[in-house]
Amino acid sequence: MLAVPLIAAQRVSKQFGGPTGVLALDGVTLDIRPGEFVSLLGPSGCGKSTFLRCLAGLEKPTGGALTLAGAPIARPPEQLGIALQRDALLEWLDVLDNVLLPADFGGRVQQKHVDRAMELLRMVGLGEFLHHYPRALSGGMRQRVAICRALLLDPPLLLMDEPFGALDALTRDQLNVDLHRLWLARRMTVVFVTHSIVEALFLSTRVVVFSPRPGRPVDDVVLDLPEHRLLAMRETPEFGVYARRMRAQFEAMGLIHE
Amino acid sequence: MSATETRATAARWRSLMLPACGGLAFLVTWDLVVRLLQVPAYLIPAPLAVWTELASFPLWFAQQTLYTAAVALAGFVSAAVLGFLFAVVITESRLLDRLFFPLFVALNSVPKVAIAPLFLIWFGTGSLPKVAISFLVAVFAVVIDSALGLRSVHPDVLDLAKALRGSRLKVLLRVKLFAAMPSIFAGLKVAMSLALVGAIVGEFVSSQNGLGQVILSAQGTFDTARVFAALAILAVLGVAMIGAVDLAERWAMPWQHATVRRVKPARRQAEAAWQAASERGAMR
């Protein structure tokens, strides 16, 4: 693959609290090409979320160069899709208006946005809940709404920061399947932060393993797995090989002991 | 009637009857104490004497009440509007917060009763100085609670708004204002009762009208029943005004008690039809 990178990180570092503060990222060099689904895999506190926040323009790197489509990221890029660990739904808006928020913030809500929002909600099984307030929904339903919101404007780049971290295992599996289907339909570039090996392998075309304190990539694997992912794929030998490789990385970092 | 309906009716009945029972118990105790201890009427009149006083001059009491209520309401509304705007200013600008908030706290620390005579010099003896005092007494609660609410937005929500490139005005109107509402209404309730206190204080200093003036002149002639009558009206007025803020709160924050937003039936039908069509399209 010789495609031009959409995201180019050159020795990106981030230090919080001045020169004597905590070094969260140390020399992250990473290219992400359009259409890739890249998982940043690592333990909590390894700086993968910080890297994502730099991509979203919410933090500024203290060193190195970080570009999106060739331009440095100084502020949140246009047409960015973003989903965070907490769903960050606005409790005072109904489901439909929550999904329409990017259109509202970007200018004015038009009929095409409403149509798109209703289509997305129907695709994730929330067509009956257009006018429910978020408090009436379960955690999994809320996170689905948050994903629809992130996808409303068909963003070429979708950033997700452990979006399923707070959900139970079954709901998490279902949302993994939903997200995979949405990605197959649109093929946007996704940067997905997770600490679950299985989730990263199930969803991604490529997995980047981060080491903790300071965060930097220690492994970078382009996955040779079927295009259409099924949950059963997680029991195949190929999947197991990758999972063992990732677990070995965690063991080498001293994060898992047996 | 279903079981849930019966339970709902019972709950509504309890929510109305229990406070009424409490009030009744208070009146009975009052009456018994006055009778048994033979308290002279110029110290504490019996509840019935207070009622007789009220019933003898209903129109006159109504006029005085209306005057005080109007002053308190004017003080409350100005405190609510200006207090909220000031809270927006100090939460949106760190510079203005540093510049003016300490000054505001310092000014608030001056006893309002001590400023009242000054207002007479400035605004004369009409209703304006009373409104001004009512405003001053009430505004602090609005500013403190509104600012607290406007700063209470979850950081994740602010990050999201920033990533969606929302303008400051939109973030304020769509996010901060709503996130702040529970705090704002808590402040408004405190401000409402304080505005009433302010109105009475203003009338104590100088007035020809209002319940404060009624209390002051009745006290001069040891007409204790009239003092109690005015106090009883004030108590009821206070409850009614707080109740009105409560109603406004319920109306302004439907998402706190409803699970589904009220939408025009026509819109709901159109959306259902759209979804059915889209479903068929997806099947094809």
What are its keywords?
heterodimer; A: 258 residues; alpha/beta; Rossmann fold; six-stranded mixed β-sheet; four-stranded antiparallel β-sheet; B: 284 residues
Can you describe what's shown?
- The complex is a heterodimer of chains A (258) and B (284).
- Chain A is 33% helix and 24% strand.
- Chain A has a domain at 7-79 and 156-252: Rossmann fold (3-Layer(aba) Sandwich).
- With 258 residues, chain A is α/β, with parallel strands linked by helices.
- Chain A has 8 helices and 10 strands.
- The mean pLDDT of chain A is 87.
- In chain A, the strands form 2 sheets. In chain A, strands 6-7-8-3-9-10 form a 6-stranded mixed β-sheet, with helices on both faces.
- The radius of gyration of chain A is 18 Å and the shape is globular.
- Chain B is an all-alpha fold and 284 residues long.
- Chain B folds into 2 domains: 9-39; 50-254, Orthogonal Bundle (MetI-like fold).
- Chain B is 83% helix and 0% strand.
- In chain B, helix 2 (47-56) packs across helix 10, helix 5 (112-123) crosses helix 8 (168-205) and helix 6 runs antiparallel to helix 8.
- The model of chain B has no long low-confidence stretch (mean pLDDT 90).
- The interface between A and B is medium-sized, with 34 and 31 residues.
Radius of gyration of chain A: 18 Å
Strand count of chain A: 10
Largest sheet of chain B: none
Distance between the termini of chain A: 39 Å
Q: Helical stretch count of chain A?
A: 8
Morphology of chain A: globular
The CATH superfamily of the largest domain in chain B is MetI-like
Can you tell me the CATH topology of the domain at 7-79 and 156-252 in chain A?
Answer: Rossmann fold
What's the helix-strand series of chain B?
Answer: HHHHHHHHHHH
Fourth CATH level, the homologous superfamily of the domain at 7-79 and 156-252 in chain A: P-loop containing nucleotide triphosphate hydrolases
Poorly predicted segments of chain B: none
Report the principal-axis shape of chain B.
flat
Binned strand content of chain A: 15-25%
Radius of gyration of chain B, taken over Cα atoms and rounded to an integer in Å: 25 Å
Helix content of chain A: 25-40%
